[in-house]
Design a protein that fits this description.
The complex is a heterodimer of chains A (about 300) and B (about 850). Chain A has about 300 residues and is an alpha+beta fold. Chain A is built from seven helices and 13 strands. Chain A starts with a strand and ends with a strand. Chain B has about 850 residues and is α/β, with parallel strands linked by helices. In chain B, the strands form four sheets. In chain B, strands 1, 2, 3, 11, 15, 16, 17, 18 and 19 form a nine-stranded mixed sheet that branches. The relative contact order of chain B is 0.09. Classes of the chains: A alpha+beta (about 300), B alpha/beta (about 850). Strand 12 of chain A pairs antiparallel with strand 20 of chain B.
């Protein structure tokens, strides 16, 4: 399946901004299940400096700096992505989760030493006792890791209420656990915190959903903005994604832009600007099919 | 044989006899058998020759030098504030050359090793993949900065300078306690220790053939020059400081001066075109290298800590583009990871193919099953530390814990072994320190410094000794430099190994670079000028007022005849803006008994506008630009601070006592203005200081004339007022010589208002201002006059055209000189406008940078 993605972010400032530096995680990466066919970033006003580099996690980071006075900043990310669905293993056939945990410390396995960073607390996902206890319910002794994680996902979907007014980008995990409401970012953070509390490797995935599904299918929650979910390392299969907001394992309708430990590592657009005063933000995301994958 | 006067101190036999080394640790001076080590003999003989009185005198001299040079160290929360003096032991730490050579080899190996580790961790990460360092140790450490991955460094040298804290094990072998790799502090203090000690003990120093330190700082300059990307003949290097509130701000300024670099704060810099620039008055200057004294995470709010106000947005990117060299590279703090010590021997074998020469404090990472078992077996003797300082940095001494707490710790280690390390307690060696009038063995550690030369690392031949304030040895050591400092003498075995440098070369900068003036520096200099003048004017007026008050023992008098004093008291309130004072509600009462209000003006530091507040503001402004002030100027600032402190600590209770305090203050303030006049290059910076001073003096004089000459007084009072004004403006002698007849008020105005030749006259200030403002940078303005120039020109013209005969006319009411009042009010307004114009043109600080990622940022849904 091929998709065309357009993500427009616009800041309007009350006062002129004299100088701004930004970094963006807006160009999709290549993964096992996806190939980025093209990606471009249009910045208005024209940036004096614009560079791209790869970050610690292999994401594509765009840095740009605007050095002329401006009252509005518009960043348009355009990309074409091909999704190649990867079959999901049978949940009951996967490794017991305790064994998966041990396997993380296999010596001489580069994949494992690279994955261990995702077992550690990170800036926005501290080890939270509540989240740990919540996850532990699904991780009964000897339970296959995929089965347990699916159960955790479903329980988050069921027990945490989706409420876009309840949280901000900075709401701590503990607060979300207390009020039991939030958005996709919070759902992902809760799951990650719980899984890490158990010692497992879990990472944060930032991306998009198809905006208007073909007739007969439901439109998914979070389709008109950037979306987020989480991913767990399953031995012998690699990283498997879970979308607790929609209670599903992403197959064909999720497009990954970046992966990290939490939101902070992969914030779509962040920046520091001089001047500006108050500012307004508007975001528009459009994800449309442009055809089936051609072999 | 023992003369009584020497009995209490190191006398012939007593100097070492009273010195008993502590058990179970190495002593630098005495062997376990009680013999004095031979290389200490010469120093001890010299001290004996000096005798108790001599030693005391030298010690006093060293304290005076430290105070005069303004050497301060201010660990957070110290009540003595920014001017807490550095403390230096009179006894150096002596190290034999052959011993030093061995230590040096170990240090160089260690620096090479750490540099390679750093390169790998921010590059290929082979060490992690090969499990030579557990991934979770590095990746979870707050000092490991993910955004710095892949940033390349010139010559592959991210670790440009490095410091190691060492002590000796009981068997005499050196052992590393900790590594300082972000912003290694202390080289400047080491140099200052040397400057002081070589002056206080000149002959001992000379005859001991001590290795010199100057070469190390030349290496430092060479390293920064070599590693900076080249954009001109000489690369521009700055020293980046967190600011005057930092504990080691003295060293930042001192190093900047000594190396000839500009001292800057984050707000002075900005990133443009992917490069780093210094904002100076009206232009941007490209910066090639930064010797930073700001910790890693604070350096860039864009990619590191978002809440940092001390950093420069985009700095990581500038480094990534190879446009600026940072010493050290961002992220080097990861080498301070306490668990790294456990892996160094294997890493050294792997990376260098050698044995690790210098041993570390024995350290175990509990994530390794064998180490864990060993730690749990021996727990009570060890010190346990969580691996990630962010969790809880306090080292735990299991041996001192209550049984339940100890059991909890054991459980925690067993559940999360990877989160803990354990270390042997450090038993520092002891060295003699002069405590009171005795030589005592005190735990002593040695901080050594290295710098990357082209061929490899160069070690400072010496270092910074640190004496612990208490004899208890086994305490964990902090990174701060508290306690007593010690000079470290590496004794050359042969005199010819000495560099042929005069001791003087230790304190002369290698190269003097005319450093650029940033807006912040200009702003501070301007205010130094204003505050110094404000304080001087206030002290002068206070003195004259107190004299007049004392002369009139019959005070309070009837309102009419007390008008002289009244005018002076009102002038004080007016000038200091300390309303109500002698002018607002309740003024009559205070006029009847002015003493409490006068004393408050002199010593109440909570009163806005009082003398202590003005002096404090002066000190703070001076401290912020201390690298711009000469040593002599700085000494005067030190004197002023001391006088201010004594005023605040022992507030005078009677006016005569206050007068005694004010006299030396006038002397110091006059000396300060003289020094800035004579000893400061008349460059851009000086122009701002001088502009501030002239503005303030103009405003003060106008205000004084208004308070004293506008109301019409009786003849006796008028005489006294004229006398007072002449006293305050220091113009008495000229007045007496020049005017024998004529109206007295007119003569006074001629001298202190309109005379452009009298440095205390209002017209003189305006003439000077007119000249000063035309020499300030003009920015984009090619022709025409700046707003400041126009204002100065207008004021000067007004005063030149004024007719004194008209100004002194009394109006119909017979109460006041209305035209004079109007004229002075106008001039005051114009001076205020001039100050505003200069502020707007030069000190308009760039707006604070803000983060886009605030609460309104895009939330993924």
């Amino acid at each position: 399946m091929r998709y065309k993605v357009q993500h427009v972010t616009r800041y309007d400032y009350a006062d002129p901004v004299s100088l701004c530096h930004s970094i963006a995680h807006l160009k999709p990466i290549d993964t096992r299940a996806q190939r980025c066919l093209s990606a471009s970033l249009r910045v208005d006003p024209w940036p004096a400096v614009s560079r791209e580099h790869e970050d610690f996690f292999g994401n594509r980071v765009s840095y740009f700096s605007i050095q002329q006075a401006h009252r509005a900043l518009e960043v348009t990310a355009l990309s074409e992505v091909e999704i190649m669905p990867v079959p999901t293993p049978l949940p009951e056939r996967t490794t017991p989760w305790e064994l998966a945990l041990e396997r993380l410390y296999d010596r001489g396995d580069g994949l494992m030493s690279d994955a261990r960073i995702f077992t550690l607390p990170s800036p926005q996902v501290p080890l939270d006792d509540e989240a740990h206890a919540f996850a532990a319910v699904s991780f009964t002794p000897g339970r296959p890791i995929l089965e347990a994680t699916l159960d955790l996902m479903t329980r988050i979907h069921r027990e945490i209420e989706y409420d876009p007014t309840a949280t901000t980008v900075a709401t701590p995990v503990a607060e979300v656990m207390r009020q039991r409401r939030g958005v996709c970012q919070d759902f992902a953070h809760i799951a990650i915190s719980g899984l890490r509390g158990l010692g497992l490797a879990a990472r944060y995935v930032s991306g998009y959903l198809e905006t208007l599904p073909p007739p007969g299918q439901v439109k998914l929650q979070g389709a008109d903005a950037s979306h987020a979910w989480f991913s767990v390392l399953v031995p012998d299969h690699g990283w498997i994604d879970f979308d607790p907001t929609n209670d599903c394992i992403p197959v064909e309708q999720h497009i990954t832009t970046a992966i990290g430990r939490d939101f902070q590592d992969v914030t779509p657009l962040r920046g520091i600007f001089y001047g500006g005063g108050q500012h307004d933000l508007s975001v528009a995301v459009d994800v449309n099919r442009i055809g089936e994958a051609v072999d | 044989m023992s003369p009584p006067e020497l009995a209490s101190l190191p006398d012939q036999p007593g100097l070492v006899d009273a010195y008993v080394p502590l058990p179970d640790c190495y002593d630098e001076m005495r062997t376990p058998e009680g013999e004095v080590r031979p290389h200490w003999q010469y120093l001890l003989d010299a001290l004996r020759t000096l005798g108790p009185a001599g030693i005391e005198e030298r010690w006093g001299e060293s304290r005076r030098l430290i105070r005069d040079n303004g050497v301060t160290y201010n660990p957070h929360g110290d009540p003595r504030g920014m001017s807490r003096p550095w403390e230096l032991d009179l006894l150096p730490l002596l190290i034999r050359s052959d011993e030093w050579a061995e230590l040096e080899r170990g240090l160089i190996q260690r620096a090479e090793l750490l540099n390679l580790i750093l390169r790998d961790l921010y590059g290929p990460r082979d060490l992690v993949r090969l499990e030579l360092i557990p991934a979770e140790l590095i990746d979870g450490h707050p000092g490991y900065l993910l955004p710095c991955g892949g940033v390349e460094c010139a010559e592959g040298r991210p670790l440009i300078h490095y410091a190691a804290d060492l002590t000796r094990r009981p068997d005499g072998h050196w052992q590393v306690i900790s590594d300082r790799t972000q912003t290694p502090l202390g080289a400047g203090y080491a140099l200052e220790n040397r400057v002081v000690l070589s002056r206080v003990l000149p002959s001992v120093f000379r005859d001991s053939h001590v290795h010199r330190l100057a070469g190390f700082f030349r290496s430092m300059r060479r390293a920064l020059t070599r590693l900076a990307p080249q954009h001109g003949e000489e690369p521009r290097v700055v020293v980046l400081t967190p600011g005057p509130r930092n504990e080691a701000y003295f060293e930042h300024a001192y190093l900047a001066n000594y190396l000839g670099y500009t001292l800057v704060q984050g707000a002075d810099l900005s990133v443009r075109d992917g490069a780093l620039w210094l904002r100076t008055l009206g232009r941007l200057e490209r910066i090639d290298a930064v010797l930073r004294r700001l910790d890693d995470v604070w350096c860039d709010p864009l990619e590191l800590r978002e809440d940092s106000l001390l950093g420069i947005p985009g700095l990581v990117q500038a480094a990534r583009l190879g446009n600026v060299t940072l010493a050290n590279a961002l992220g080097s703090g990861v080498l301070e990871h306490p668990a790294l010590k456990a892996f160094l021997p294997a890493l050294c074998q792997h990376l260098l193919g050698e044995e690790l020469a210098l041993s570390d404090t024995p350290t175990w990472w509990c994530g390794d099953p064998e180490s864990r078992a060993r730690v749990l077996d021996d727990l009570d003797r060890l010190i346990v530390r969580p691996v990630h300082p962010a969790l809880d940095p306090t080292p735990i001494q299991p041996g001192t814990l209550a049984p339940e707490a100890r059991a909890r710790l054991v459980r925690a280690i067993e559940t999360h072994p990877r989160r803990y390390i354990a270390q042997e307690p450090v038993v520092p060696a002891t060295a003699p320190a002069l405590i009171g009038r005795q030589l005592e063995p005190r735990p002593t550690t040695l901080r050594t410094f290295l710098i990357a030369e082209e061929e490899g690392y160069a070690v400072m031949p010496g270092g910074l000794g640190r004496v612990h304030s208490t004899p208890e040895a086994a305490l964990p050591l902090s990174g701060q430099l508290g306690g007593l400092g010690k000079d470290v003498w590496v004794l050359a075995s042969e005199p010819e190994r000495q560099e042929t440098l005069l001791p003087l070369s230790e304190i002369t900068p290698a190269v003097v670079q005319e450093s650029a003036v940033s807006s912040r520096v200009a702003d501070n200099l301007f205010w130094i000028g204003r505050y110094a003048e404000r304080a001087e004017g206030l002290v002068r007026l206070l003195r004259v007022t107190i004299f007049k008050y004392a002369e009139r023992s019959d005070y309070p008098l009837s309102p009419a005849s007390s008008s002289c004093l009244r005018a002076l008291l009102e002038a004080l309130t007016q000038q200091t803006q300390t309303f109500p004072g002698f002018l607002g509600p309740g003024a009559e009462e205070r006029l009847n008994d002015p003493v409490p209000e006068l004393l408050a003006l002199i010593s109440d530091r909570s009163l806005v506008g009082s003398l202590p507040q003005t002096l404090e503001a002066l000190g703070q402004a001076a401290y912020s630009v201390r690298d711009r002030l000469s040593a002599d100027t700085w000494r005067i600032i030190g004197d002023i601070e001391a006088l201010q402190a004594s005023l605040a600590d022992h507030p005078p209770r009677v006016l005569s006592q206050a007068l005694d305090e004010l006299d030396p203050l006038v002397t110091s303030l006059v000396a300060f203005s003289g020094l800035t006049q004579e000893n400061m290059t008349h460059n851009e910076g000086w122009h701002f200081l001088e502009t501030g001073r002239r503005l303030e003096r103009g405003a003060t004089t106008a205000s004084l004339l208004r308070s004293t000459l506008v109301p019409v007084a009786g003849e006796a009072d008028e005489n006294m007022l004229i006398e007072a004004v002449l006293g305050v403006t220091d113009s008495t002698i000229t007045y007496r010589r020049r005017y024998r007849g004529g109206t007295r008020v007119g003569a006074l105005l001629d001298l202190v208002f309109q005379d452009e030749g009298n440095p205390r006259a209002l017209a003189y200030q305006l003439a000077m201002l007119g000249r000063l403002v035309t020499e300030l940078p003009r920015g984009d303005l090619a022709v025409g006059r700046t707003p400041a120039e126009k204002l100065a020109l207008k004021s000067l013209t007004d005063i030149r055209l004024a007719e004194i005969n008209q100004l002194i006319q009394v109006d119909e009411s017979g109460q006041q000189r209305a035209r004079l009042a109007e004229m002075l009010a106008d001039l005051n307004l114009q001076l205020a406008a001039l100050s505003d114009a200069i502020t707007a043109q030069y000190f308009r600080h760039e707006e604070q940078p803000h983060s886009l990622l605030s609460r309104v940022a895009e939330v993924p849904v």
